[in-house]
Model the fold of this input.
Amino acid sequence: METPLEDSLVLVSHDAGVRTLALNRPKALNSFTGAMHVELAAALDAAADDREVRCVVLTGSGRGFCAGQDLADPAVAPNPEAGGTPTDVGAAIERYYKPLAMRVRSMPVPIIAAVNGVAAGAGANLALCCDLVVAARSASFIQAFAKIGLIPDCGGTWLLPRLVGRARALALALLGDKLTAEDAERIGLIWKCVDDVAFDTEVRGLAARLVAMPTRALVAARMAIDASQHLDLGAALSHEAAVQRELGVSHDFLEGVAAFLAKRAAMFSDR
Done:
């Protein structure tokens, strides 16, 4: 297991095929700065390129997951030397948050958001970009954008209605109310809420389970489900056939069938 450097803005550790990335600005509830974006992008790219990685866990240090954008960061803060002239917030989205959301959604391995505390603004939507969201019962989700005159970003406008429907998406976006982890699970915003004492064990067990599964097929399932949102049924069925054609000649399919017939555990290795 690697030992992370405590002064890094993203702590990186690796154990048994699981790469864990922990946002590391705990005093600021892991809110984003430009520097942290750079470190996280590099860590995600490194995990994507490392064939020893079969699952990524994204979490936060301290008592928060991520409080979104640090509003004091020069990337978004008004410029006092220019008389408080607003910065181009859209430029920050294009430079940082769009690449981040696209990187997470295109990871070649499953990615778990382990939400250990508050997930607000872009931090909430970063979690929702992940394949599976597991939250501690004390965690919460807040679409805080309306409180500062903005709209949901980091993919929020795309994710929210697809996860919970238009009515709930609008209520979350317009009102900016805090949503408990339990309620987030109840309305289908996240996959699972677990008691705080069981949180670490649950995340480790889930990551270990994913490591042992056919990584290439899991990622293909994510991509096919996302693609189907823009297709009619016939086109979705044709897309399924195309994906199955590729997976059907893979090592993992052959191994899975052989293991099933031999009544033994499969040893998947494709990525």
Observations:
- The chain has a mean pLDDT of 94.
- Residues 10-211 form a domain with the 2-enoyl-CoA Hydratase; Chain A, domain 1 fold (CATH 3.90.226.10).
- The longest helix spans residues 89-105.
